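User: Structure tokens for both sequences below?

Assistant:
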Amino acid sequence: MKTKVLNLFLIMTLISMYSFSQDITDGLVTYLDMETSINDVDPNPVDQPPMDMSGLGNHPTNRGANPKGFNYQVIPNKDGFIFNRVMISEHNIPGHLLTEPGTFNRGKGDYSIAFWVYVKDADITDINGDLVEGHRDFQFLSYNNGPAETQVSPNTTTLAFLKNQCFAALTTNPNDYIVSPTPIEWEKWYHYAVVSEYATNTTKLYINGRLTVEKTIPNEDVIELKETKGGILLRRGGGGNLYYYDNLPEGLDSLPVNATLTVPTQRVIFDGMMDEFRLYNRTISESEIIEIMKVNYAAADIENTFDSNYRVYKNDYGVVVESQIPAIVTIYNSTGSIVLNKKIDSGNQVIPLNHYGSYLISINGRVHKFIY
């Protein structure tokens, strides 16, 4: 993201000098930061899709009739992150952003997808207008099998979504999903990354840089996929149904055998925001996912920063880290030199500082600033 916040630029420069162990542009075939269109103006949902920032020229297209249920908007910093302009999504209104057809490696090799997403809770109704009780499934991404399809059809397959308020991802088999065990909080930013390894039929789902669930399909259960010719749809835009049995969701795009409720897929388009979409033609590692996330970290003063796993603050001797889990702590001085780089155990840790001045401290990849 092309942020103009000077402090963030300094932080990213310092961190990249010492801790970027991988090149997060390697294998990147599409990168949409939602900041600038292909004509160097602000993106819009009609004639100015965002530019592909990978340098490969794989620019997306806006699809669907007007009015579309998506647009682009500048938002303030939130949840400790900087996003600037994001893609906003309105519930139950079709229209989608489509990546360049043929860039998605599904059915022919490895791929990884990473993006930020912010979801609001919403109710849905079935085709008769009746409320679907307990529904908490929302779609973020889908894809077409091709050849080079640009419109949504009943064959459009859901790729990334919420199932019962938990993040889910398509495995290497068709219509087979893995689901994270923990429900999300509404109206909060999350980083979502799915990694698919073709040779081993393994799918991994990372939320906020941590592996939450993975699955390897046994050889005898592998279903051969057709090579994907179409592109990935950010949002979906209709074209198919979600079927329910006895008011319980049984999956997306399943056959309507004995279905008691039928919901058009456009009604489960998520209400919220999406940003920093990246598509790779290789598997990315957990450490690379953390590096990708660092692009959006907003360094906050440690006196105002609290995390569910740690707290950090100053005392008369230096800086104190109270951590519930083991942590990698790196401290930089104002010139960018590393003062400390070590793994600490859980509990209270006092890190002495010998000189007064400005410092940056990175704890498990999260960056904070302080003056001692």
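Moving on to the next sequence.
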Amino acid sequence: MPAATATAVGTTSRRALDLGRFGVSEIAFPPGRCLPWHAHPRACIAVVLAGAVRKRFAASEGVAADGTLVTMPAEEPHEDEFGRDGARIVVVETDDEVGAAKAFRDWTATYLALRIADELADPDPLTPLAVEGLALELAVVSQRGPVPVPAARWLESVRELLDERFREPPSATEIATEVGVHPSHLARAFRAHYGDSLGGYARRLRLDWAAERLARTDEPLASLALEGGFVDQSHLTRAFKRRFGVTPARYRRAHR
């Protein structure tokens, strides 16, 4: 087994906070950096904020681009190869169990990681408390993850389709035709497995995406609304306030 290696090995910059239960850091890797097979002494929950990294495990490999959450149990052997833009990653190290290594795109996780990065960049006396709370939220997101549906692979295909096309999702009939089931069966099965309707799931993804964009860009609300699949800025504002309790403009100001 590869020797235990600190998560900061190979980085060009690092901000870190030791909270006991959690070690939380924001780290940056240069373009083209390759970290040969290694393992970390603690379990890791990582979110790629920018760039990309190809991760190779004993039984699988894949590219984790921006917006991807990755979990790895302690002492999990893996190899990292960073893309042409390098990568900026928020990492939460923990002694808690995180399950098997997995990776999936999640805008809620990205938003939480961005808030962690903001706290680490401009700390104050309440930063440890704030970061611990955010790390706990991120741990919950990582544990819930994509709901496994081993008896119905087609349902996972539906979820993946909505993840990719949440800004302009196809109709339930179109989705049902694509996966080869009746629309009513699709609707019932999706809600049973994922706890939400097709439309509710896509709406939640769209609003999580909007929250992440508001926190990290200065894109005008009108163009962000159109890019995110909302009818117009007013539609975005109404839906966003229902979900988060504040308007998009106020939300953006609060995270600057």
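User: Anything stand out in the second?

Assistant: The beta strands are 13-18, 22-29, 34-38, 43-57, 61-65, 68-72, 78-94, 102-105.
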